[in-house]
From TrEMBL, chain A:
Name assigned to this protein: Geranylgeranyl transferase type-2 subunit alpha
InterPro entries given in the database record: Prenyl_trans_a
Organism name: Oidiodendron maius (strain Zn)
PANTHER family: GERANYLGERANYL TRANSFERASE TYPE-2 SUBUNIT ALPHA, PROTEIN FARNESYLTRANSFERASE ALPHA SUBUNIT/RAB GERANYLGERANYL TRANSFERASE ALPHA SUBUNIT
GO cellular component: Rab-protein geranylgeranyltransferase complex
Lineage of source species: Eukaryota, Fungi, Dikarya, Ascomycota, Pezizomycotina
Automatic annotation (TrEMBL), chain B:
Name the record gives this protein: Geranylgeranyl transferase type-2 subunit beta
Cofactor note: Binds 1 zinc ion per subunit.
Organism: Oidiodendron maius (strain Zn)
Keywords from the UniProt entry: Metal-binding, Prenyltransferase, Repeat, Transferase, Zinc
Subunit structure: Heterodimer of an alpha and a beta subunit.
GO cellular component terms listed in the entry, alphabetical order: Rab-protein geranylgeranyltransferase complex
EC number: 2.5.1.60
GO terms (BP aspect): protein localization to membrane
């Protein structure tokens, strides 16, 4: 229903009788399978057989979220608690699904018992986990993880699959010995690495990676910080694709923790900032990348740690005002150099304009006449190069005019001159 | 996305567009009407998990198109109520589990149909009245309690259902529905606002959770949640956010959701509505965006696709029409960005 990238068929020819019959057959097969699962669940048949039926259905349609939930219930109320693979239906504890009647719909198995987010922490059958590597629970979880993997490759944007997988891995933490659970979680890092190699911007993939790392770092899995290796991972990813904004973003989030854990001195922090600027400047100079917005957003992030007034100095918190002014001045020189051969790059003009005004703000003064002159010429370039955003340039122009009008008064920080 | 009067109309006149680029209102109405008559298509059955959202998208689009009567009101209300569970939540269709997203769609549809009182007459959930509340609104309370039960009282965000997936999408949807139900007092609003602030990124945008990359849809849900809660003051840097949002427009006029991704009609709504909330819709080329959305419609069969020439669906039809309404396209009912 929410289709993306599927071409509209050019003609609207009616389907052939054969195609129509085939489609009816597929519908029959699909709805019969849903009904069969509903009926078996209504009879509380929490068996391997029904689990396999849900696998069959999910391969046809992984978006059927209710079936993923059925699968969860099959595991926690049935299969996880079994000592051996008997095919007897399991009886269910009274606490589960109060008010459930004998209707054949799966609706009575839904969340009536627990709606709180915290409910996942009170699992039934917690008293008799089957620990160790050879237990049924371990085999079930591992088998299920293997079953899902091809589905994830085929449907990388399906939220339900990613969620189910995380839930399954959480079950491993709750039900298995730590080193066994940790081994399962470690495999996920390799898996998500593969997913991100296939599509280096996959939103779900990056979110999943952060989730996996946070569990691998947690005390539940006897973990420790992985910030160094994750930072290294972002370096690898941005070097492979300089416009991988997902990787630049992740990098920005890792840096504060990285420097804290390194117990970096002021000098080391200063060198770190220099290295980051060098990395991004080289990226800007590479091939067509002066025109790639990803690198400019990361450049903006680094500059914000220098020019923003409060709260953003996350890399070099102890730089003096003079140091910061000197740093920004140096970057303005670099930006002018970048224009050479890239006179049609709007991002450079935009940065020159923004940081020239920021510099005067840092120096607690109004922009000089020559600054304003240049800002106007850069603005003219921006208007020419980027007409789509002319409304934004109008607002910039207004703020420059406001500077003219107000230049007689004492300077203020912030206010309309911010871009 | 409630239907109240929104910000001022942009200056786009239909006559300035060539005839092949006019909104095919009649075709779109017809397209939405026939959505539920396609039971002989496999796709219909495979998309059952979106049935109640589909009704909301279709009905909302019909309201914007000025044809709210094109779907049978009683049938719609009956269907919505048939999706409700004993715990007060709604599933995507009968036989599907309750989930926050479907519950919110149900509330939105009932609001559009002006049928909220049917919850008190026929609704389910925990209807026991609280001291001070009237028993006549017990059905509404049942739904409100289901939604409020999904708030994480430690972090302020919301889970989608009992299995615990959390996302700022759920936070916004939950807050919107609770405000439509007039039950915001059941949740911790301040904690939710703090959570949104913790999802902000250096580029001014917001992600699905703290640490997640900015994404136009997540930006809109965070801004819209703050707007519903009357806390837009919590947006720290509207200039930076406006820059990031305006850079979503690509040369063809369409909008993408993240840097260097493909444009798509659904982002027309998420980006444009976000810009509108922070008062910077004029930072993109509105006329070019209007043309792009119109190029994505199927003028004969009705419906709007993600990109020109692609398969149409009710999701993009809704977001395309909502985008056009926001842009002030003539003959459409005005939409509210939040
Ligand atoms: Zn889309």
């Amino acid at each position: 229903m929410a289709s993306h990238g599927i071409p509209r068929s050019s003609t609207t020819e009616p389907k052939t009788e054969q195609a129509r019959l085939k489609e009816q057959e597929q519908i029959q097969e699909y709805t019969a399978l849903v009904d069969l699962i509903d009926a078996k669940i209504a009879e509380r048949q929490y068996t391997r057989e029904v689990l396999d039926l849900t696998s069959k259905l999910l391969k046809k349609n992984p978006e059927n979220y209710t079936i993923w939930n059925v699968r969860r219930r099959l595991l926690i109320h049935g299969l996880f608690s079994k000592q051996s693979d008997s095919s007897l239906p399991l009886t269910e504890s009274q606490s589960f699904s109060p008010g459930a009647t004998t209707t054949t719909s799966s609706a009575n198995l839904s969340s009536s018992a627990t709606t709180s987010w915290a409910s996942k922490e009170t699992l039934p059958n917690r008293a008799s986990p089957i620990p160790g590597k050879n237990g049924t629970t371990h085999d079930l979880i591992k088998g299920d993880l293997d079953f899902i993997f091809p589905l994830m490759i085929e449907y990388p944007k399906c939220y339900w699959i990613w969620n189910y997988r995380l839930w399954l891995l959480d079950q491993a933490i709750d039900r298995l010995e730590v080193d066994v659970a940790r081994e399962l979680w470690s495999r996920e890092l390799a898996l998500v690495g593969k997913m991100l190699n296939r599509d280096s911007r996959n939103f779900h993939g990056w979110a999943y990676r952060r989730g996996v790392i946070s569990q691998l770092e947690s005390s539940k899995l006897h973990g420790r910080s992985m910030v160094e290796s994750e930072f290294g991972y972002t370096t690898k990813m941005v070097k492979a694709h300089l416009s991988n904004f997902s990787a630049w973003h992740y990098r920005s989030k890792l840096i504060p923790r990285l420097l804290t854990e390194r117990a970096a001195s002021d000098l080391e922090r200063y060198q770190f900032l220099n290295n980051e600027f060098e990395l991004i400047t080289n990226a800007i100079y590479a091939d067509a990348y002066p025109y790639a917005q990803s690198v400019w957003f990361y450049y903006q992030f680094l500059m914000s740690t220098i020019v923003d007034e409060v709260g953003h100095a996350i890399i070099t918190p102890n730089l003096t005002d003079e140091d910061r002014i000197e740093y920004a001045t140096k970057q303005l020189v670099n930006l002018r150099d970048m224009l050479d051969g890239a006179e049609d790059c709007k991002w450079i003009y935009n940065a020159l304009l923004e940081y020239t005004l920021a510099l005067s703000r840092m120096q607690n003064r109004q922009p000089l006449e020559v600054d304003k002159e240049e800002c106007r010429s850069w603005l003219a370039e921006l208007r020419k190069l980027d007409p789509l955003r002319s409304g934004r340039w109008d607002d910039v122009e207004k703020s420059l005019k406001w500077l003219d009008v107000d230049s007689r008064f004492a300077p203020e920080s912030g206010g309309p001159i911010e871009l | 996305m409630s239907l109240v009067t929104g910000p001022g109309r942009a200056s786009i006149s239909a006559s300035s567009l060539p005839t092949e680029l006019q909104l095919s209102i009649a075709a779109h109405v017809k397209y939405i009407q026939t959505l539920d008559k396609r039971k002989d298509e496999l796709e219909y059955h495979l998309t059952e998990h979106l049935r109640i959202n589909g009704i909301y998208w279709g009905l909302c689009a019909l309201h914007l198109l000025g044809h709210p009567e094109a779907l049978d009101r009683d049938q719609v209300v009956d269907f919505v109520l048939s999706c409700q569970h004993e715990n007060g939540g709604f599933g995507a269709a009968p036989g599907h589990d309750a989930h926050l997203l479907y519950t919110v769609s149900a509330v939105q549809v009932l609001a559009l149909c002006d049928a909220m009182e049917t919850l008190d007459e026929r609704g389910k959930g925990d209807r026991s009245s609280l001291p001070g509340s009237t028993s006549s609104e017990s059905g509404i309370l049942g739904v409100g309690r289901y939604l409020a039960g999904l708030q994480n009282r430690r972090t302020g965000t919301f889970a989608g259902d009992e299995w615990g997936e959390e996302d700022t999408r759920f936070l916004y949807a939950g807050m919107l529905a609770l405000s439509l139900l007039n039950k915001l007092h059941l949740v911790d609003v301040d904690l939710a606002v703090d959570h949104i602030i913790s999802c902000a990124n250096f580029d001014g945008g917001y992600g699905a959770s703290p640490g997640a990359e900015s994404h136009a849809m997540q930006v809109l849900v965070c801004l819209a949640a703050l707007s519903v809660l009357g806390r837009l003051d919590a947006v720290s840097d509207k200039e930076k956010l406006g820059v990031w949002l305006s850079e979503r427009q690509v040369d063809g006029g369409g909008l993408n959701g993240r840097p260097e991704k493909l444009e798509d009609v659904c982002y027309s709504w998420w980006v444009a509505a976000s810009l509108s909330i922070i008062g910077k819709l004029h930072w993109i080329d509105e006329e070019k965006l209007t043309r792009y959305i119109l190029e994505c419609q199927d003028p004969e069969q009705g419906g709007i696709a993600d990109r020109p020439g692609d398969m149409v669906d009710v999701f993009h039809t809704h977001f395309g029409i909502a985008g056009l309404s926001l842009l002030g396209y003539p003959d459409l009912v005005q939409v509210d960005a939040a």
